[in-house]
Amino acid sequence: MLPSETIGHIAVNVPKVELHLHLEGAIPLETLFHLIQKKGEPSIENIDDLQRKLTYTDFDHFIDTWIWKNTFITEERDFEWITYDVLRSLTYHHVKYVEAFYSPSDYFGQGFSTQKITEYVIKGKERAYRECGIQCELILDVVRGNSLDLCMQQVEDVEPYLGKGVIGIGLGGREQKYPADTYSLVYRQAKQKGFRVTAHAGEADGPKSIWAAIRALGCERIGHGVRAFEDPELVRLLREKNLPLEMCVISNVRTGVIPSVEAHPITEYFRKGLLVTVNSDDPTMFNTTVSREYSVLAEQLGFSLEDLKRISFNGITASFLPEKDKESLKCSFEKEWDAVLDTFVQHS
């Protein structure tokens, strides 16, 4: 076993992809605290107060806290600043490519529009690319609980940005209360227009939710999928179809979906040959980073450096990038991995 400081150094410095990241859940603490101060919230006087607020008893408590956090985004233009700060923070962890969820409908109560939010998010990501070199594509989260008409209207609203910053749609929210198959028409419409498709499934609900995401929605990736192990037939299908899983270990522990890191099924899935990716989900809200996710795999679940390298390349394979861009990114990753490991050997 490598020393923790060595694992931590390698985990930070190797190149990574994030495929399951919510922009609004990744707002750096300092940025979120500034937003809270701007609006005013007596219960949050400092960063420590904010960190204590971001602690949850279960998944529903997390959703309630997510909704509370949203109230401090008071202007559409905030999304440009938020997006830039999120992506810049990811560069400290050598994230090269991101497919980020954003949820415009969460802000309709503030009078925001899908189009304006999208435009500001695109401005923020373009600035991050110019200044920091990090590439980001956007996934519209249509959100469980919204009406079909509203979801379909959102798809229409972002269609002009397809291929110009937006790449796909996703489905988050209260999984048990709003089954995936409810949104089959939305997904059918989106796929016809050229959107790539993923959905949260098998996080707070069981294997039937994953089956619905595959059969009713035609998903190309599964967000989380931690409960697939309850159905061996489903696990076989995921392996045979090479259907990627967007896994987020710390998130699942923080929301109580999984009782502990050691109980997480990611090790079983990886050893069985499933296309597993590792992501930070809502890193600020779960007090994690994608580098920490990699460290946890090595320190607590026995993943080797070669395993971690495979995980990082899985992120490229599972992405919605064109094949030529995937190959280019893999070549770049190979060089960066070699450089990090060479440095490790020289100092060991």
Task: Write up this protein.
The protein is an alpha/beta fold and 348 residues long. It contains 15 helices and eight strands. The chain has a single domain (4-338), classed as TIM Barrel (Alpha-Beta Barrel). The chain has helices spanning 4-13, 29-39, 47-53, 59-70, 78-91, 114-132, 148-158, 184-193, 207-215, 232-241, 249-254, 266-271, 290-301, 305-318, 323-346; strands at 16-22, 95-102, 135-141, 166-170, 196-201, 221-224, 245-247, 276-278. The radius of gyration is 19 Å and the shape is globular. 49% of the residues are buried. The model has no long low-confidence stretch (mean pLDDT 95).
Give keywords:
single chain; 348 residues; alpha/beta; TIM Barrel; eight-stranded parallel beta sheet; 15 helices; 12% strand; globular
CATH architecture identity: Alpha-Beta Barrel
Instruction: Give the overall average pLDDT.
Output: 95
- Classification by helices and strands: alpha/beta
Strand order of the biggest β-sheet: 1-2-3-4-5-6-7-8
CATH class (first level) name: Alpha Beta
- Order of SSEs: HEHHHHEHEHEHEHEHEHHEHHH
Total discrete domains: 1
Low-confidence stretches: none
The number of helical elements comes to: 15
Please tally the β strands and state the result.
8
State the major sheet.
8 strands, parallel
Distance between the termini: 13 Å
CATH fold name: TIM Barrel
Radius of gyration: 19 Å
Q: CATH homologous superfamily name?
A: Metal-dependent hydrolases
What percentage of residues falls in helices of 4 or more residues? 40-55%
General shape:
globular
